[in-house]
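Annex B. Sample input.
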Amino acid sequence: MSIPTATRFRSAMRLLPTSVVVAAGLSPTGEPVGMLLGSFTSVSLDPLLVGFLGDNNSTTLPALLALDYWTFSVLADDDDLTPDAFRLPQSERFDKVKWSITPYNTPAIDNAALTIHTRNHSTLPAGDHRLVLAEVLDTTIPDTARSPMIHVHGRMTRLAP
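Annex B, continued. Sample output.
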């Protein structure tokens, strides 16, 4: 048995469904900073922690890690606009999506299926990524009938009813 190449491993992992989440905070100048995540997960109940893996080559990750508070917006399955907007340069990502400032002074996507308000907790090296942990302060479920978007087979999709 051989160890898979990075390309083969990446192809295999495309079969694993993941959530589609925007991590966002406000820069010291009041500009929103955010990135699209495909590795967001619940980590711990005591203390309440969530986490994601951020690519070491990301230009947005350092700006996000410099902030104390973040909001994670779990995108709804009918949100066709936000994933494409977050593929744009950082300065344009929030221009075409509806978002608001939360009581935690962080940006959140308005039509998200779930919003998780957090404080920066810690980071750990993880190969060519960083494991980023955040302490959960609060959650907001705007509409329990909305379902989350998922990413699988290289595309955004929804769960079957």
